[in-house]
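Data follows
____________
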Amino acid sequence: MDYYTHVEGIPMDRRLLTLAEDAIKGKGDGRISKHDAEKLLAAVVDGNQFTEVEKDTVAHIRRTFRWTETARDWF
């Protein structure tokens, strides 16, 4: 599996997108919870470097996925 995928021509971190998609799939009310946000952040910081691709991916996830207010504020 490739590490990257492209969304609207922009390279994105496939693992982060999968975490976000799995967080809302078939559970709860379809929003990213604080617990889900904690998993996302852990995946971002696991390499001790916040790359441009990760920044773009996180911005996309924040913009296009529904979040609980608590999760959005925490993240």
Q: What stands out?
A: The longest helix spans residues 52-64. Residues 4-74 form one domain.
